[in-house]
Design brief:
With about 260 residues, the chain is mostly helical. Helix content is about 80%, strand content about 0%.
Length: about 260
C-alpha cells in the first residue's frame, strides 16, 4: 500500500522527493482516525466552518444559475427556438458533448489551479448563457429564425463548461477542503443542500418562465451566476499541490 501511495504522490507532484510528505500524511491520518465527528464539528472549528460555507455557496449559486433547469427543459427550449434539426437530435448532440467533456476533465483537473478552472469554465458558461438569453428576448420582437442554432450551441458550451470545469471542481474541492474527521459529514451535507436547491430551482424556473418567458428568466440566472462566481473567486483559496494539513492550516488562518 505504501508503494502505491508513493507512486500516486509522485505522479501528482511530478517529482521524486515525496517520502517526507507521505510520512506527514500518514501521521495526520493516524491522528485523525482516533477522532469521532458529527454535524456540529462543522461549526466548532473555524477552518471547517469556512470551508463548509464556501462549498455550500458554490453549489447553491450554481444551482440557481439555472443549469439544471435549462438541461431538463432543453427539449422545450429547442422547440421554442424553431430549430434547424429535430429537438431530439439536438438533445443527443448536447448529451454526447457532455459525456466527452466529463471524460476529458479527468486528464487535466489536477494539473491546473483551482481558481483558473473556476474562472475559465465560468467565463465560457456566462458567455453562452448571455447568448441564449439574448436570443429568446429578441425572438419575442424580431424574426431571428436564421439564428435558431444559437440555443443549441449555447447549451453545448454551457454543458461542456459545467462538465469539464466547475462540476468536477466541486468534487475536487470537497476532497481537499475538509479535515478527515468531518469529511463524510460535510460532503453528505453539501450533497443534500445541492439536491434541495436543485429542486427549488427547477420549480422556480418553471413558474418564472410561464410568467416572464425564457429570455428574462435566463438573464436573471446570468446575473445570479455572475455575482456568485465573483464572490467565489474572491474568497476561494488556491489549493493546488497543497497537502491536507496545509489546506486545513490555510482555512484556519483566514480566507486568503
Amino acid at each position: 500500500e505504501m508503494k502505491k501511495a508513493e507512486r500516486t504522490v509522485r505522479r501528482l507532484r511530478e517529482h521524486d522527493e515525496v517520502m517526507d510528505e507521505l510520512a506527514n500524511i500518514k501521521t495526520y491520518v493516524m491522528l485523525d482516525d482516533s477522532k469521532t465527528s458529527n454535524f456540529t464539528d462543522l461549526w466548532r472549528n473555524r477552518g471547517s466552518r469556512r470551508a463548509f460555507i464556501l462549498l455550500i455557496w458554490m453549489v447553491t449559486y450554481q444551482q440557481f444559475s439555472g443549469i439544471s433547469a435549462i438541461k431538463d427543459y432543453a427539449g422545450l427550449l429547442f422547440k421554442e427556438s424553431n430549430p434547424l434539426l429535430d429537438e431530439n437530435i439536438e438533445m443527443v448532440i448536447t448529451l454526447s458533448v457532455t459525456v466527452i467533456a466529463s471524460c476529458l476533465s479527468t486528464l487535466y483537473i489536477d494539473r491546473f489551479g483551482r481558481r483558473l478552472i473556476l474562472f475559465t469554465s465560468s467565463l465560457a458558461f456566462m458567455i453562452a448563457l448571455l447568448a441564449m438569453a439574448s436570443f429568446f428576448c429578441l425572438q419575442a420582437t424580431y424574426n431571428i429564425s436564421n439564428y435558431s442554432w444559437i440555443p443549441l450551441i449555447s447549451l453545448i458550451i454551457m454543458n461542456a463548461a459545467r462538465s469539464a470545469g466547475f462540476r468536477p471542481l466541486i468534487y475536487v474541492l470537497m476532497s481537499e477542503y475538509y479535515p478527515l474527521k468531518v469529511k463524510a459529514t460535510a460532503v453528505t451535507t453539501v450533497y443534500f443542500v445541492g439536491a434541495i436547491t436543485e429542486s427549488i430551482n427547477l420549480k422556480l424556473f418553471q413558474i418564472m418562465s410561464d410568467a416572464l418567458g425564457f429570455g428574462p428568466v435566463l438573464f436573471i440566472c446570468l446575473i445570479i451566476y455572475t455575482v456568485g462566481t465573483i464572490i467565489m473567486y474572491i474568497f476561494m483559496p488556491e489549493t493546488k499541490n497543497l497537502s491536507l494539513m496545509e489546506v486545513e492550516q490555510l482555512f484556519e488562518r483566514g480566507w486568503k
